[in-house]
Amino acid sequence: MGLLFVPVSAGQLRDWATSGVLPAGVVGYAVTAGLQSAFEEGGDEEAEQIAMLVASIAALAEHGRRLVVVASGVGVPAGDPDFGEVQLPELRYGDVASIFADEPGQALVVAAAAAVADQPLSVAWEQPAVTELLAGADLLWHGAGEWTVLVGH
Q: Which residues constitute the domain of residue 32?
């Protein structure tokens, strides 16, 4: 079993936490051979960091906000192998290890969200505003039980 990085909206996070289950078939990101090859990472921890950042940009493009749930599980490779894209099994909220999100209202986040809205990940990843965001704004760690403070933003 490995770590899965799941980009979610606030509504998806609320539904997952309250129902206890994320249905199978959601797209997530993981440390895969394709991701390791594409990013030429230096080890497991660095590869996990890259997978989380990839998931954060997928969330930003789709939902306008970097909100990533980290859970234990095994995904099935699907989509873009360079980004470690996987199709997720049904995941229980009890498998959630942590949640990462931006501090609300950061200018870099707002600019990047506007630049990548509704773009495919491969296009969003290359945007200068994303490069600036990744260099200038760290994601904040939250425990699984802190989901309620994240769904109100």
A: 2-150
pTM over 0.70: yes
Residue 83 exposed, middle or buried by CB count within 10 Å (0-12, 13-18, 19+): buried
Q: pLDDT digit string (tens) for 81-109?
A: 999 999 999 999 999 999 999 988 789 99
The two tokens of residue 129 are: 């505003």
Q: Number of structural domains, the chain?
A: 1
Q: What is the pLDDT of residue 1?
A: 60
- 2 membership: H or E segment, kind and range: strand 2-7
> Which residues, at least 6 apart from 72, have a Cβ–Cβ distance to it below 8 Å?
1, 2, 3, 4, 95, 97
What is the rounded radius of gyration, in angstroms, for the C-alpha atoms of the chain? Answer: 14
